[in-house]
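Pasting as-is:
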Amino acid sequence: CVHPLSLPRLPPLPRHRSLAREVAFLFVKVSNRQNRMLARSSRLSPLVQKGLRQAYPAIVGRQFLTPPQHRLQSTSTRSKATVAAAHGLPLETASVSNTPVQHKQMSGGELEVWSKEFLAAVDSVYHATDPVQSAGLLRKLIKTKLLKFTDMRDAPEKFFLAHRLLSTIGLGGFGIRFTVQFNLFAGSILGLGGPKQVADLQNVQDQGQLGCFLLTEMQAGVLSGLIVETTAEWSAETQEFVLHTPSDRAAKNWISQGFVAELGVVIADLKINGKSHGPHPFIMKLRDGPGGALLPGIRIQDMGTKTVANDLDNARVWFDHVKLPKSSLLNKYADIVDNNYVQTTSERMRIEVIGQRLMTGRMAIAQAALMYAQTLHLKTQQYADSKVCNGLAGETSLASMPQLRAVFTESEHQLSRMASFAAEVEHRLNAHLRAGSIPEPSLVEQIAVCKIRCIDVALQRCHALRLEVGSYALMHNTGFELMDMLLTCKFAEGDSRILQQKLARDRLRALQKGGLGAMARAVLTAEGRAALRLARQLAPAGRDVNKLAKAMDQNWEELYGLADLICERHINATPPRRFIETCTERVRGADIAFDHAWKDKLATV
């Protein structure tokens, strides 16, 4: 879940071995194919020969054909097949979708009325400075039903709009609490639960109950979801699941809203008769009502004071043989029948299915980061316009200084570009949310690009702005005091570095899957040549883990560079779209002080 920790500046790739091995093993196969491919080649165009020199200097004299239909076209909007061919990708991974996506937009009047009501309901967020106050505010908001738990399915544009509105009043801990409640907790039940479990969300909203999402484990770190050691063992004798944390390293970690919530969706390895069926979601009670005692077998520890967002509680959670009823398994995709594991749909339960909420979360966080950056620039622009400075020719405004003017100009371009991309990707995702379908691989990749690039651009532009506005950036109530929240965005819902590695891994997998033709076409683009070069660098490691670790350490910049090129392809090939609302500066500084003894107030809630 969301946890405000800092990232290492230059993380060596072997820290994430599971992805590193998979990447290198693919290249062993690719490397073996290259010699066979080139041996059969007879002709080579000058352009392809130039590309080969860059990718494989040792094979300059070899030649092969590139079919004319796969030449890269220069039109601004290209068909999915053309984009795929130009980059040597299989059709299903191209970035442009031919399927029209339609959804009903909120009318202008509805939008204005709803936005005012929503902002009025969260007006006191600035003063809710400790977890008890913040949790109380969220309970009240839930009960208003301005945003329903089912709106992710029924009105997804309203779901994303709510996140953007919250970021315009300050990207703080309440926004994380909000997305945990509506996206990770309620959204998981909506997407993974059976009909009765989804219907029960109505009662949860009526009572204003809080929930959390327990996925990340202590030793899993940013590899959240790839490693789940918490177990849920089915007992045929008692017809119950036994939820257990086998060791400290399997404790659920940095669980946002995990200290105050009375409910939770926990991800655990489902075991029946000693056989593992992989990670599955379970709904469970953590506390005996709001502010109530923890249920037997549950231990929770507060993660401590942070540099920002201390209105949000983050928890570490252990389970000691906690008994869960059969109905706790979210059973849209799987269930227990006659003590046997049963798949209930053609889509089997797996971590990618559970991860659908991570994708909606990535979109929400990416958009929130962008909107915060835009509002920060608007607020700073207002200050700079009114700030009088002494110039060479007399009095002038701070905003007229060329270095600051250049920052504003570049920021407007970069932030608008990413907002246009994010709006279109959301538009495509909304169709899947309404239909309850799993997004196609190309859309999954676009969502990852949103998460990576929107947050990176927001960080870069806000930092550039801070460097040029002087002491104003040090002051409270300017918006700059919230900048650490952008770091939170960077590693929430899938660390950006991990997503970059996945982009590169999938690109190389597509290169291998596409065969000789894909390798030939790859030399026509910078992205394709980068993939071929990286393949050449990693292939000698073979299946030797130690050699692989060294190769990944030496080539981590090339891998992340490939991911950057993939991001650029998606952004350039995706038609722009606008968000349904205009950007407005509403940022106010939150109260600085907070009650460090907030846990003592839980029992009085």
